[in-house]
Amino acid sequence: MSAAVTADDLHDLRTRVAGRVTGPDDAGYDAARAIWNAMVDRRPAVVVRAAGPGDVAPTVAFARRRGLDLAVRGGGHNVAGNGTVEGGVVLDLADLHRVDVDPGARTVRVEAGATLAHVDAATTPHGLAVPLGVVSGTGVAGLTLGGGVGWLTRAHGLTADAVVAVELVTVDGETVTADADHRPDLFWALRGGGGNFGVVTAFTFRAHPLGPEVLAGNLVYGVDRWRDAWTALRTWTSDLPDEMTTITTTLSPPPVLEAGDEPLLVVGLAWASPDRASGAALVDRLRRLAPPDVDDEVGDVDWRAWQSAFDPVFPQGVRAYWRNTSFDALDDDVVDVLVRRGGEQRWVGTAFDVHHMGGAFGRVPQAATPFPRRSAGFWLNIYGFWSDAADDDERVAFVRGMSDDMAPFASGGRYVNFEGRQPPGHRPVDLRAVYGEAAYSRLVDVKRRYDPENVLRVNTNVPPG
């Protein structure tokens, strides 16, 4: 047990919250402290599994009174490991996962511990969808607070762009709602500025008609066809309608996919319109430009099945490190890097995605949210997964090396949800550079108003000064 937290302290905390309070000497402690990224192994003094929003204020007050670091954990991954803390307090919101759909208003209220799977299960029966991510186990809260990129980004924008209202508890214990008319400064900051300003307990989203089936799937290419595929994508993506979003992945497939041992280029496609004929014609155009030589599996797919199709690529409990950058064009020099680096990654787990941006995402004014680089044509996410700590240096070096190779072509955007935990000795992400001077200054102002002591600092932190 931490020297700062005694048995009497834990007893006192248990009288103040309805949820489960777990200390280092309690049964289930290792399970309570475990997070998705096994590279981050921390031993908090106490984990509070909140039973409801009423547990937030007393937990925050407990951490403040004792001068302990406070980590807030939602329902999902948190690649950087900010959902836990050494010797401090973890506030775990995973049991707050209720989703309420208003089909008439096309709004969806989502509690902060919900995952994509929870939301899709509630919205799909109504023929509705919220723009979310690409893996069903992703937590909605972290995804939204950082921005939210996924299969509907070009059609409907970021997850953060769909937010209508945010309910949260401030560090002073006040329950507030932020929307366009109430606390608009806070509402702006929460849609891309991370968990710096309060503990979010629920979001209300605007939903869009979709499904339950969509036109989606993959065109898959072997190594010899990669350059042709990238060249075709350069042409094909130049004039796509908003309804078509593509995410192109290079990976050595995990055995569960039964796709062999050689690295593959997978062009993932999702068409967010009931006009199947127009979507199919677009896919046919890409097929003609670059006929897939490994697999062609595009057709009508259940939306929930598509949202979980990439789950096997992101297993629980792996060691993980990510980096990302935006760029504007698939020119020959960029393609050279993508083909060369893709051919070098011959181990299962490490991969990279190229998200085609633009569409509805690109039409949101830059100043409307803190999210950086709305003008980006593409976004590259390089991610590594492995199980053996002995591979840490090699795998991290690959991710960093590819990131360095892409630096000459980068357009300046960095997405905080795609940033991994920095290894020891490396400088943290420069958020002033990420957000730009004007947006960063606005974030600091909001932070100063709502968290002047930087209580919420175990995150991608915007300090209050």
Automatic annotation (TrEMBL):
PROSITE patterns for this protein: FAD_PCMH (PS51387), OX2_COVAL_FAD (PS00862)
Database matches in Gene3D superfamilies: 3.30.465.10, 3.40.462.20, Uridine Diphospho-n-acetylenolpyruvylglucosamine Reductase, domain 2
SUPFAM superfamilies given in the database record: FAD-binding/transporter-associated domain-like (SSF56176)
Domain FAD-binding PCMH-type intervals: 40-210
One annotated GO molecular function: oxidoreductase activity
Listed cofactors: FAD
The entry's keywords: FAD, Flavoprotein, Oxidoreductase
Family indicated by similarity: Belongs to the oxygen-dependent FAD-linked oxidoreductase family.
Protein name: Dehydrogenase
Species the sequence originates in: Cellulomonas carbonis T26
